[in-house]
Specification:
Two copies of one chain form a homodimer.
Chain A (H helix, E strand, L loop, with lengths): L2 E7 L6 E7 L2 E5 L1 E5 L10 H6 L5 E3 L1 H6 L3 H6 L3 H5 L5 E3 L3 H9 L2 H5 L11 E4 L4 E4 L6 E4 L1 H11 L3 E3 L11 H25 L5 E6 L5 H13 L4 E4 L7 H14 L5 E4 L5 H9 L4 E3 L2 H7 L2 E2 L14 E2 L19 H5 L2 H9 L3 H27 L3 H9 L2
Parallel strand pairs in A: 4-5, 4-14, 5-6, 10-11, 11-12, 12-13, 13-14
Antiparallel strand pairs in A: 1-2, 2-3, 7-8, 8-9, 15-16
Helix pairs in contact in A: 7-8, 8-9, 9-10, 11-16, 12-15, 14-15, 15-16
């Protein structure tokens, strides 16, 4: 059964040390949730994911409903049996992909990245739900709050999320208000569906919407606080700059029931995580650590970067061609213990998938080490020291 | 130091149970050598290669000389340190790729597969060596016997191979004779180079050439027997049918010094291995087990195939979409112990690289189990029983 326990609260900020109990084990928080988008953390076996110290992974309802389908996963015994991952698991509602792929590039906008044009797959939004075209065969699919919960019940993750309308940044306040209000009604339908048909093993998170508008976030938070959600996921557009994003997360988090679990959707930069933790966020998810790995970028503490304004260690660069040091000098991951930057560089250049796999192992372990460090320092209410260790140049 | 010991000889055939001693440990023979073409078994960490029970892997001098170059690998401390593989390692001479890529599709012809047109990169063959164009930057490169050995010394594998002229099947007897005679002169230059500059840790194999012509194989074998090669590698064109291939391997093997180690180049089908073992072959290498894995084909005992004339279990097929059994019911590999055919099918369909990686793990373990079974049965001189177990429908 799901339970969230707060073990300690900081006296300096809203940061807290906690523990999530699920039918598949516990998660020490603050924690990072890795993306296993299509029921696979790309290139990694579950043994490798575990060896990196991972506590919890996420799969996307949107992708899995299209292939192989919730019903097949249910026949397989659920996502845990299907993938071989016996620890806590999280699924999202499908909403983010329906709307971000649908609007064309909104996913990027929400995350503050360059906006790019993609094919719009979203057909129409009604009170019932959202209709979109499958990216596999082009067939129209109607995703409703009820259907999203049914699929997430079939998938069987420990923590599931309400189906919401994820409004982009560029729309006006009226649009954002309507989307937030509809998300409230949809969240209620999600809760009703799970309470009527669920097995009481799955925890349901309400998504807090409202864009960058304080009073809308307030309304969304009030609604969520009032109902029996097991926790909250802060979603929607957080703003178009880091400052705005931090502000939105901080003010939203302050509005939420202080005893319930809070997840921040889609954010995973190291400084962003430190800020999120201070605002009371318990878990984070982001595709970046595993995605950038496949493009040759290794996450290291800032002091180990080759200077300049780099965010990551780019192992594609010729400068590491003869660098026989490990990816990061302080890392205990399998890759750092066994191979060098020069070897990974060679693999990337030779287009050997092992190159990206080794960096994925490293990045996973690094994000897990980051969260371990944050938790250890929170025990002594000394988050600043961890921040200096990870973020000082 | 290299040493080959024969532990038992069959009384029914030329099969033998043996042990290869190298500076990086021993190899129980008959054994299968897996291809780590560009210093990586595609997609696999060294830990995964080891977990599958692998004794020895091979890298290709041709690819590594082009990138990252022998000198860089030497700076890294040799192939073992570079890759993290601390067990026995084998490199070929580069000859096979120079000539097979050079002639266009000869590699396929030699292996009895469909001939396909590829870009011809071979520029010219002289007594000095072979000139070819780099597939990376198009630069002309001269590979000589001396250069091949120097690069293989820099790579530092335990077992290395003489640079030879690998004549295709379709040329006439005169051409094959000349190539075999030149290969003899080149082999002598390889031996001289290693004896003059080597560290006595690397074992050198002579390649037995001569195509399908008995008297040419005889001449090649006589030459190799006469010189201080640590062993032999049967190479060149073995014929264009299975029958011709078996005949060529059998007659060539019979001509070789019975106390030295014999490798068969590029052959790895299960029935072919049983035949090779009977003819006295100690090790085999082939890219197939790992290559076909990436295309969805799992190696299983014949009785576990879905009938028909299939050679492999094709996990791409819709027939396994809801098959929640392991890849093979009798397999102890990581994949079979943790996931199902349906999951691997989903991954292949979703183009998740984990799908090919899981089948690679399975195929490696299966080839190692095959060789373990062959060795166990050779202890009781009962190879037939192992053949029935693996090859009976």
């Amino acid at each position: 059964m799901f339970r969230f326990e707060i073990l300690a609260r900081s006296r300096k900020s809203d940061a807290r040390l906690g523990r999530i109990y699920t039918p598949h084990g516990t998660v020490e928080t603050p924690a990072f949730i890795f993306c296993g988008t299509k029921a696979s953390v790309k290139g990694m076996t579950i043994a490798q994911v575990e060896e990196a110290g991972t506590q919890i992974i996420l799969s996307n309802t949107y992708h899995l409903m299209l292939q192989p389908g919730g019903e097949l996963v249910k026949s397989a015994g659920g996502l845990h049996k299907f993938t071989g991952w016996n620890k806590p698991m999280f699924t999202d509602s499908g909403g983010f992909q329906v709307f971000s792929l649908g609007y064309g590039g909104v996913g990027n906008e929400i995350k503050n990245a360059q906006q790019t044009k993609t094919n719009r797959t979203l057909q129409r939004i009604t009170e019932d739900g959202a209709e979109f075209k499958s990216y596999i065969d082009g067939k129209p699919i109607l995703l409703t709050p009820e259907r999203s919960i049914e699929i997430q019940m079939a998938l069987g993750a420990d923590i599931i999320v309400c189906f919401d309308e994820c409004a982009p940044y560029h729309v006006d306040k009226l649009y954002t208000t309507n989307a937030m209000e509809r998300s409230k009604r949809w969240a209620k339908r999600c809760l009703d569906t799970l309470q009527a048909h669920g097995d009481e093993k799955q925890a349901l998170l309400a998504v807090i919407q409202g864009g960058v508008f304080k009073e809308l976030r307030e309304e969304s938070a009030k609604f969520a606080n009032r109902h029996e959600f097991d926790g909250f996921a802060i979603g929607g557009s957080l703003g178009k700059s880091k400052e705005e994003m931090y502000q939105t997360v901080e003010l939203t988090s302050k509005m939420l029931d202080k005893n319930r679990y809070v997840h921040l959707l889609g954010i995973g930069g190291i400084e962003d995580i430190f800020n999120g933790v201070k605002y009371g966020i318990d878990t984070f998810d982001c595709v970046a650590p595993t995605r950038i790995a496949r493009h040759g970028a290794a996450i290291v503490k800032k002091k180990y970067l080759y200077g300049g304004n780099q965010k990551y260690l780019n192992l594609h660069k010729t400068s590491v061609e003869r660098d026989f040091a490990p990816i990061s000098p302080d890392c205990d991951c399998y890759a750092c213990q066994n191979v060098t930057r020069a070897y990974v560089h060679h693999l990337l250049k030779a287009r050997e998938s092992l190159g990206g796999n080794l960096i994925t192992i490293h990045n996973m372990r690094t994000m897990n080490r980051l969260m371990e460090d944050i938790r250890t320092h929170l025990e002594h209410d000394n988050l600043e020291a961890a921040f200096v260790e990870w973020c000082a140049a």
